[in-house]
């Protein structure tokens, strides 16, 4: 991907909420949007021909390079999967493995309409390079673990990765990513929280994915996980909490008060059989910002956020025993980050906002009849996306992504090097 500023791009004949509009993008932002917008001299142009124009999806929690491990050991229970399958191959990972695994993930995300993702994985600068080359946006953090020692080395590597990631701004944001309360010591959690505040970067962490995590936290620290993290200064407006399956009402009130973002990962929760889902209606009631994520391809295994969107809506309705609990339009808003502003790059489809958008296929028969949002949530999958534009660059047009064959071949070669596939 050429990283020079793209020339202005103008889309005409797109349909936004039933109205035919044009959209002009200049230097990565939307300069004009409305019924009379047309191209300037020398613009790149797209005639949408009546295709629906929608905001892109935001994947609020993933481990992109785990595309290399898709399906590997996937029928094992969680701890055996980690110990016997994943950790031994992760020990052999090199930066180029992470680069090509992340390129494959970006390819899948471009094809299925995700413009931005939140990532936690080893060799974070290699992920950042992949995101830059693919043309997407991401907030990236290298995982921080020290439950079995190595605190000082972890601090040094977290500091180094913040500096490395800063070179990829603005499409890539740096973050700190302490893995979870059961893999990171109290001292290191406090340190990471302070550093995130000092450097003004986001902090991502897994929280309350399993009931066992809650029980151990209460036994060890005398508090449920959200209160324990708050005691260490971890909860703030730039904190992203992934999973949140076992949060109770008081924890949700605390999370809302601190302004954190919660990310639901329904497919990974079901695949790992954690026994529940993020309690979305209670989170909404408490005023918590909520987004949606796939988690890594090792535990989903898809990066098509449309499938998580359908599972999210179905699981929430099912868990509540109430089909009115989550209207389709609201589920769509969760998947596009409209209910979790931290996750997005700015207000989508607005003048002055990021030039990130999707044109849906005119031949997407699933969308031909009825309410668009209901169709997007329940009938569609990522294949309905025809055109993906991020920061004013056309990353996919007519379902075709540049260099796709090379990316797939390189990722497969790196997976074979690791003894997979
Ligand atoms: Zn995860």
Name some characteristics of this structure:
22% strand, 421 residues, single chain, binds zinc ion, alpha/beta
Report Rg: 21 Å
The total of helices stands at 14
| Small-molecule components bound | zinc ion
Average of per-residue pLDDT values: 96
Structural class: alpha/beta
Largest sheet: 9 strands, parallel
Oligomer: single chain
- Spans of at least 5 consecutive residues whose pLDDT stays below 50 are none
**How many β-strands, per DSSP?**
18
Helix proportion range: 25-40%
Question: How would you portray this structure in words?
Answer:
This protein is of the alpha/beta class. 37% of the residues lie in helices and 22% in strands. It contains 14 helices and 18 strands. The chain has helices at residues 78-90, 95-111, 124-134, 151-166, 186-199, 211-221, 225-231, 249-258, 266-271, 280-286, 305-320, 328-335, 372-378, 404-417; strands spanning 9-16, 19-26, 29-34, 44-47, 53-54, 57-62, 114-120, 137-141, 143-144, 172-178, 202-207, 239-243, 261-264, 289-292, 357-360, 385-390, 393-397, 400-401. The strands form 3 sheets. Strands 6, 7, 8, 9, 10, 11, 12, 13 and 14 form a 9-stranded parallel sheet that branches. Strands 5-15-16-17-18 form a 5-stranded antiparallel sheet, covered by helices on one side. The longest helix is centred in the first third of the chain and has 17 residues, at 95-111. The structure holds zinc ion. Residues 61, 63, 206, 242, 295-296 line the site of zinc ion (ZN). Residues 61, 63, 206, 242, 295-296 line the site of zinc ion.
């Amino acid at each position: 991907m050429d990283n020079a500023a793209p020339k202005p791009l103008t889309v005409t004949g797109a349909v936004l909420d039933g109205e035919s509009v044009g959209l002009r993008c200049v230097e990565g932002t939307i300069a004009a949007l409305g019924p009379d917008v047309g191209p300037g001299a020398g613009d790149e142009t797209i005639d949408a021909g009546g295709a629906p124009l929608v905001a892109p999806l935001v994947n609020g929690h993933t481990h992109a390079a785990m595309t290399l491990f898709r399906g590997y050991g996937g029928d094992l229970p969680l701890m055996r999967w980690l110990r016997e399958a994943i950790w031994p191959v992760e020990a052999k990972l090199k930066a180029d493995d992470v680069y090509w695994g992340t390129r494959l993930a970006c390819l899948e995300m471009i094809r299925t309409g995700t413009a931005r993702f939140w990532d936690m994985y080893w060799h974070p600068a290699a992920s950042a390079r992949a995101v830059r080359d693919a043309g997407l946006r991401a907030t990236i953090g290298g995982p921080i673990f020290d439950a079995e020692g190595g605190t000082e080395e972890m601090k040094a590597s977290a500091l180094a990765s913040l500096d490395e990631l800063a070179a990829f701004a603005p499409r890539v944001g740096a973050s700190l990513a302490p893995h979870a309360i059961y893999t990171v010591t109290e001292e290191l959690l406090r340190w990471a929280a302070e550093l995130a505040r000092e450097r003004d970067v986001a902090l991502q962490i897994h929280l309350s994915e399993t009931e066992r995590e809650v029980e151990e936290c209460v036994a060890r620290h005398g508090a449920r996980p959200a209160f324990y993290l708050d005691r260490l200064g971890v909860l703030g407006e730039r904190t992203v909490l992934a999973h949140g399956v076992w949060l109770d009402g008081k924890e949700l009130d605390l999370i809302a008060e601190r302004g954190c973002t919660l990310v639901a990962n329904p497919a990974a929760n079901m695949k790992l059989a954690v026994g529940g889902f993020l309690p979305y209606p209670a989170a909404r009631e408490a005023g918590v910002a909520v987004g949606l994520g796939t988690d890594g391809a090792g535990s989903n295994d898809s990066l098509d956020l449309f499938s998580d969107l359908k599972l999210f809506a179905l699981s929430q309705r099912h868990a509540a025993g109430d089909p009115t609990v989550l209207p389709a339009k609201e589920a769509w808003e969760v998947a596009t980050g409209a209910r979790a502003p931290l996750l997005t790059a700015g207000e989508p489809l607005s003048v002055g906002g990021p030039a990130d958008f999707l044109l849906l296929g005119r031949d997407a028969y699933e969308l031909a009849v009825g309410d668009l949002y209901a169709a997007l949530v329940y009938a569609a999958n990522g294949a309905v996306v025809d055109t993906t534009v991020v920061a004013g660059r056309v990353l996919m047009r007519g379902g075709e992504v540049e260099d796709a064959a090379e990316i797939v071949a390189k990722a497969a070669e790196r997976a074979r090097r690791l003894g997979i596939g």
